[in-house]
Every structure is written in C-alpha cells, then in structure tokens.
From TrEMBL:
Any Pfam family matching the protein: Mannitol_dh_C
Protein name: Mannitol 2-dehydrogenase
Transmembrane segments: none
InterPro entries: 6-PGluconate_DH-like_C_sf (IPR008927), 6PGD_dom2 (IPR013328), Mannitol_DH (IPR000669), Mannitol_DH/Oxidoreductase (IPR050988), Mannitol_DH_C (IPR013118), Mannitol_DH_N (IPR013131), NAD(P)-bd_dom_sf (IPR036291)
Domain Mannitol dehydrogenase C-terminal: 287-469
A Gene Ontology molecular function term of the record: mannitol 2-dehydrogenase activity
Domain Mannitol dehydrogenase N-terminal: 30-278
Phylogenetic placement of the source organism: Bacteria, Pseudomonadati, Pseudomonadota, Alphaproteobacteria, Rhodobacterales
Keyword terms of this UniProt record: Oxidoreductase
Keyword check for Oxidoreductase: yes
Amino acid sequence: MDELISLSNTTLNQLSVEHPQYDRTALTPGIAHIGVGNFHRAHQAWYLHRLMQAGEAHDWAIIGAGVRPYDAAMREKLLAQDCLTTLVELDPENVSAEVVGSMIDYLPIEEGNAPLIAQMADPAIRIVAMTVTESGYYIDPVTKGFDAAHPDLLHDAAHPDTPRTAFGALVAALKLRRAAGHAPFTGLSCDNLQGNGDILRQTVVSLARLSDPELADWIDANATFPNSMVDCIAPVTGPKELALAHDFGIKDPALVTHEAFRQWVIEDKFCAGRPAWDTVGVTFSDDVHAFETMKIRILNAGHQVIANVGETLSIETIAGCMAHPAIRNFFGKVERNEIAPTVAPVPGKTPAAYVDLIEARFSNPRIVDTTRRVAFDGSARHTGFVLPILRDQLAAGRSVSGLALVEALWARMCAGTREDGSVIEANDPIWAELNAAALEAKEQPTAWLDQSNIYGDLRDAELFRDAFCRWLTMIWDQGCIPAMNEYIAFDRQKSA
C-alpha cells in the first residue's frame, strides 16, 4: 500500500476523497462548540462544512472547546491535523469517506476556563453550541428543575470569574459581553433532551442569578436558546474504525464513522444571526417538540429497550441485538404497542413509519455501536427517555407490560453480571447505588422501584409495579430470553 496521508491544510489536495474546496486559512470564527465528540463532528460540523463547500458561511467557522481534562486528548489529535476530520459513512450497501474542515481551532483546556470565556466574550462568536450529554445539565432528577445544590454550581456561584462548568463559562462570557456593550450570543444545545433549549436557558439563567441577578435578567431578556432535535448514529471510534481510513489512503486518529442518515430540526430563534443551514437540509420549525418527541421516544428509548438486555446476554453491538430473534421481536412489539401510541406524526413521517426506519437503522451491521455505549448512564436515559412514555401509557389506561419488562431488564443488567457469569463493569455515574438496589431486588423486586430519584411516584402505580415485579422474578428464575418470548407471545398485562 502507498504511504498513508496525514491530514493537514497542505495535504488536502493529495486526498482521493471529497475534501474542503474552500480556503480554510481564510475562514473566521462564528461558533464556539463545547464538547467536540464524534457526534458533533459527524453532525453539526458536517452541515456547516456543506455550506462552506457551497461558498457560504466562511465567517461561521467553529472553535472547539472542552471543560474536562479528558477533552485534552481530542484537542491534541485535532490540532495535529489542523482540526480536520475524516468522516466515513457506513451505508449497508457502500462505504464512503469525506474530510470535513469547518472547525479551525480547539481552545486550551484550563482550570477556570479562561481561554473559553475569552473566546465566547468575543462578539465575533454569535452561537455557542454544546454536546455535553443528557446528564450534563444539572437537572434535579425529581423536580426536573435547576439543581442549585450541586457542588459544581455552588463553586461557580461563589467563583463566577473562574467557573468549573461549561454553564459557568457561558455566564462569565455573557457578563463580559454585557459590560463591553456587546449583544449576547445564542446558546444552542445539541443534546438529546426534551426541550433542550429551554433546559439550557434554565441552567444558564438560574446559575447567573446565584451570583448576579441583574445579569440573569439581561440574559433572560436578550439571549436566545432555541430548542433543537439532532439525529445521527456516530459510534465510538476503535481500532476497526481507525483502519477504515487506511482504505482511503488516510491516517486519521480522530476519524469518525457514522450512518447514512442525519436529521437536525431547530427553532429559528437566533439573536445574533445564523448560517443558512436550511439550504443544506436542516429543518427550521416552530414545533421542534413534535420532532424531538418522535425521535427521543422511538430512537432513544428504543436504544434502552435493547441495550440493557443485549449487555446481559453478552451481545456486543446494537446491530447484533437486532439480529437476535427474541430481542428484535421484543423491540418491535414494545415500539409498536407501547411507544408509538404516545407519539404524534410530524410532516412527512408517521410514528409507524419512523419505527420502521429506526428498525432498519439499528440493524445496519456496518455500524459497530456497542451495547455498552448505548447502555451507559441509564439513570439519566431511562428517566429522560423511557419513564415519560410509561407515565403517558398509564395516564391513557394502556398497557405498560413491555415497558415494565424494559425496566426489569435494566435492573437485571445493573446487578453487574451477565447470564454467562462475566462481570459488567460500572457503566453509570451512580452505578454503586444502582448495583446495590439491583442485588436487593433479586429477592425483593420492589427494592429497585424504591429508588425515588428515578421512579418517584411510579413506585405506587400498581399496574406498573405488579408487572415489573412479575418480570424481574421471571428473569432471575428463567432468564431474559424466556421473559421476552412470553411478552412477545402474549401480553401478560392483559391477563392480570
């Protein structure tokens, strides 16, 4: 094989794959993005790159940022190749690649976040976007409000000029902009949260109020925080994925693989302007809620339907789960009988059609999306994705038998061993608490539901509680597959 080409501005014209045709040295920044993971580079950065390829948005380039020490490794990789990224699209019928160049710098990661604050205070930055995971917004798990008692936020309130969190950095930058007479930027959450813009506003304004009420009022009145829905599966990059770059003659330690599907729906509320994303496939809508409800419930909750049992049965990937007859049939029945009824259609897509789409996407064998990754942080993902569906089903008087089985399978996974006896390593920020509850629930199933920070008053919902206890008892007595097969064959709830 010929020598591999390392990415840089000077080697772009040596590449055999699609790559930036614009002068990257002439790009100027307009967006700061916090959390430069695979998803961001396969999704938001790609949409901006498409605009730049069309000769537009050259004053909207992305400055990458992070607030945690572990972000430094990605920063080092990207700066070494001029912040270029190879995207490898894994369509079931074809594999293709392109190099994306819409990011031009990655800020130093320092305690106190001074470089990030200074960058966001620059009026050239008109959008601050973020992908910091669903659990990163300091939401009280019971009230769903701002968690003002969290130690990180107490630190930022006491030290507003040297904050620990991304949100504290936003507040500090907005304070500098206000003092200099500059307009605020738009805060754009790209995380899988229902009403993510509203939640970002809640976090930023509430944090500002702890140290500077007048600043909080100014942010609330002048900054914008549009809700958005994002969708593209971009698995963790491992040795197999890195090797794919070699097939295209490229050496790229920051390569990203992704499926042949993207969707981005945003409220058109940008106080300082925005790129013309609508010309490259982004949907602007006043009803983002309907799109995000469809996606979060059918896709994100659907991931939890299969990942926990897949982990317990030693199935390594989501595609592997969908190739397992019992899991695939379990997924299909729960989705169609108990999840889709809680979802309204959106322009161009019915819930039933979206279930079919997700079923096909999850089954793509080229996407090596691990069950461990998808099962990570279940305490946030079940509370955010699954339990709201369960509540709606209960309120409508419909079956929750399959959803109760989903929760029982999660409890079984959190016991920390697979059915083959191997150990499931800690996979949640509160793994110790989950593991203790799961082990106690092996003998007393309601012990799992006694976790009030997760289930709240669902513990007292007899229909759900009784179904959950039956399923968990059966799982421990007979195994996961017999439980799923019984649900598939006959809805136990109807026989109760």
